[in-house]
Amino acid sequence: MDSGEIHKIGSIRRDSAIWRRGEEVFSRSSREEDDEEALKWAALEKLPTYDRVRRAILALPEGERREIDVAELGFQEKKALLERLVRVAEEDNERFLLKLKDRIDRVGIELPTIEVRFEHLSIEAETYVGNRGLPTILNSTINTLEAVANSLHILPSRKRPMPILHDVSGIIKPRRMTLLLGPPGSGKTTLLLALAGKLDSDLKFSGRVTYNGHDMNEFVPQRSAAYISQHDLHIGEMTVRETLAFSARCQGVGTLHEMLTELARREKAANIKPDPDIDVFMKAAAMGGKEASVVTDYILKILGLEICADTLVGNDMLRGISGGQRKRVTTGEMLVGPARALFMDEISTGLDSSTTFQIVNSLRQSIHILGGTAVISLLQPAPETYDLFDDIILLSDGQI
Questions:
Q1: Rounded CA gap, 314 and 326, in Å?
Q2: How confident is the model at residue 270 (pLDDT cuts 50, 70, 90)?
Q3: Containing domain of residue 67, as a range?
Q4: Domain for residue 324, yes or no?
Q5: Average pLDDT score over the chain
Q6: How many domains does the chain have?
Q7: pLDDT tens digit string along 205-264?
């Protein structure tokens, strides 16, 4: 063997030794990081349950992990968290929801579901017919005087009954998307209001609406269901983010905190370590009373409102967001809440078909995975949006 070959073999051995040392350094560094993270989780597990649901291990941009109080989660930290969980709403939302569901299923917790039944539902309104029904100053004055006379039993009422819904019955199943179709004036809005428990007290109502077999007078339906109006009523001086955050604070977090407490207790008993990012998100979502919840930022991303999050909503006197964006804000105001049953009235008005598809698809993923209940009224949905629904209700002249 000549000196050239000996030198070549020695060089190869030195290079391989360098690579082995490099691999050992990286392996040792990785092990140290894992050991440090394990120590942080162990310290977190020793905390009382009340404190444990407030603290989590957050991944930092530098690759480090730090124990934090989720109530003090900053704007940039929430933004980075959502970028890791739902980078692109169309592609990552379903994967994110499946991670949430998987964590809950692993400890045997079942999310509550709502089955809505309506039986022999009939609704009618009393109204003036003919010229008396026209909105003129004279008619308004006469109607006011006549109402006073009617209350004093001096004159009989000249209003005539007008049926809106006539003997309709049906079942809205959880984990299914129900599409409500019908021409204008067919009674779609009235049906949705009746199912959500928000009917006007002036309407005559007969029949029965139940949630899981319980009548409306046995509980407060507004805590379990949300009605999303086709009319956009907002405070124009507030930004989109402020509007959704205010709505989230008004609605609260429902039973999420109690569920998370039980989840943490069972995970500790079973020695289960959750995904750190999912853990931070769920604990931050369960913190009520925050000016800007992580759920608010999540809904902004899902509805495609991030681009105008800090823009004023606006009104007729104040320039703000577009009509389509305002419609999405109306939808987002209810989605940030804890309602398990959603009754949505023509949420696609002013939206293009692709945006409508994205929103309905995100709702479908949430309903199917997390066990929600949804009835959505749409006006002439596109074929691809129509195919997202499981059930259809056709309403015409107050009848199904």
A1: 9
A2: confident
A3: 3-81
A4: no
A5: 80
A6: 1
A7: 888 888 888 888 888 888 888 888 888 888 888 888 888 888 888 888 777 888 888 888
- Residue 14: inside a domain, yes or no? yes
- Reading the block at residue 72, the tokens are 């003090």
- Which amino acid would we find at residue 140? S
Q: Which amino acid is at 233?
A: L
Tell me what pLDDT residue 26 has.
Answer: 44
Residue type, 16: S
Residue 344 one-letter amino acid:
M
pLDDT reported for residue 31: 57
**Where do we find the tokens 């970028």?**
83
Angle, helices 276-285 vs 75-85, to 10°: value is 130
Query: Is 69 a member of any domain?
Result: yes
pLDDT of residue 13: 54
Please report the pLDDT score of residue 213 as a whole number: 85
Q: Please check the confidence at residue 28 and state whether its pLDDT lies above 60.
A: no
Instruction: Answer whether residue 144 is part of any domain.
Output: no
pLDDT at position 301 over 70: yes
Cα of 317 vs its chain's centroid, Å: 30
Question: pTM score, two decimals?
Answer: 0.79
SS3 letters for the chain? CCHHHHHHHHHHHHHHHHHHHHHHHHHHHHHHHHHHHHHHHHHHHCCCHHHHCCEEEEECCCCCEEEEEHHHCCHHHHHHHHHHHCCCHHHHHHHHHHHHHHHHHHCCCCCCCCCEEEEEEEEEEEECCHHHHCCCHHHHHHHHHHHHHHHCCCCCCCCEEEEEEEEEEEEECCCCEEEEECCCCCCHHHHHHHHHCCCCCCCEEEEEEEECCEEHHHCCHHHCEEEECCCCCCCCCCEHHHHHHHHHHHHCCCCHHHHHHHHHHHHHHHCCCCCHHHHHHHHHHCCCCCCCCHHHHHHHHHCCCHHHCCCECCCCCCCCCCHHHHHHHHHHHHHCCCCCEEEEECCCCCCCHHHHHHHHHHHHHHHHHHCCEEEEECCCCCHHHHCCCCEEEECECCEC
